[in-house]
Design a protein that fits this description.
The chain has 246 residues and is mainly alpha-helical. It has eight helices and six strands; from the N terminus they run E-H-H-H-E-H-H-E-E-H-H-H-E-E. The protein is flat.
Length: 246
């Protein structure tokens, strides 16, 4: 899991969201296996002092897993198996442990909302990347697939682009519409009995209702991210890039 030779910023390949999502899912599965494995051992042993010690150890492993691996090897196991690495934007090497820890904390605090700006940035950066001045790049270009990365975007500015304030205003309108649709879908699901009030507050929820709630929320976040990215690149109705000669 050695870090690949650093590439100059101009040739960097920045990971798309699907590749990053696969890495997150792998790390989530590993964390879940660890938790259930520890629970199984606790039940098997049946000693309170052992249970407390093992619980503390599991928490330490879960909290330090990403910061340690990102700072030492350039990425978690999820990153590694998806040919990704986390790079310090200043010197294009591994981020420090403190920066990796801050990055992990911000990602945990913001959750999926951290990715809402990813397609509106030049280097496919989530909010936790921007705040820690880091990027997620392809680890080994020889193993990369074209749809796993982008090169640095340069199409956010130019005489053919609408003014920033107009783009921002149009994006806000679309985000409000997306929130309205999200509310209407949840309201319809509640009216038809597909979601109960308890399920919508993440309590006493049957599996099907829980999955529906999560799916609708992820669709709303995805739609919001698309609005931000398309709007900032001048591809939304109301703030489109001008075509010369038209």
């Amino acid at each position: 899991m050695s870090l690949a030779t650093d590439m100059p910023a101009r040739t960097a390949r920045y990971a798309r969201f699907p590749a990053r999502l696969r890495a997150i899912l792998i790390d989530w599965i590993l964390g879940t296996v660890l938790l259930f494995g520890a629970l199984f051992v606790v039940v098997l042993v049946g000693r309170d002092d052992f249970s407390r010690a093992l619980g503390i150890l599991v928490v330490i492993v879960l909290v330090s897993y990403e910061p340690v691996l990102v700072s030492v090897t350039g990425g978690t196991l999820g990153h590694y198996f998806n040919n990704l690495r986390v790079v310090d934007q200043r010197h294009h090497g591994n981020v420090s442990f403190l920066k990796a820890l801050a990055r992990f904390a911000l990602k945990g605090l913001l959750g999926w909302y951290s990715f809402i700006l990813i397609t509106a940035t030049r280097r496919n950066q989530a909010i936790h990347d921007l705040l820690t001045r880091s990027t997620v790049q392809i680890r080994d270009p020889a193993k990369a697939r074209p749809n796993d990365y982008i090169t640095e975007r340069s199409d956010f500015h130019g005489p053919d682009m609408p003014p920033k304030r107009r783009r921002a205003a149009v994006i806000c309108v679309y985000l409000l519409l997306a929130a309205l649709v999200y509310g209407l879908v949840l309201g319809a699901a509640r009216t038809t009995g597909m979601l109960s009030p308890a399920c919508m507050s993440n309590a006493n929820c049957f599996e099907a209702g829980w999955l529906l709630n999560i799916a609708v929320a992820l669709m709303w976040i995805g739609a919001s991210a698309a609005c931000v990215g398309l709007g900032w690149r001048g591809k939304l109705l109301g703030a489109r890039r001008r075509t010369w000669g038209s």
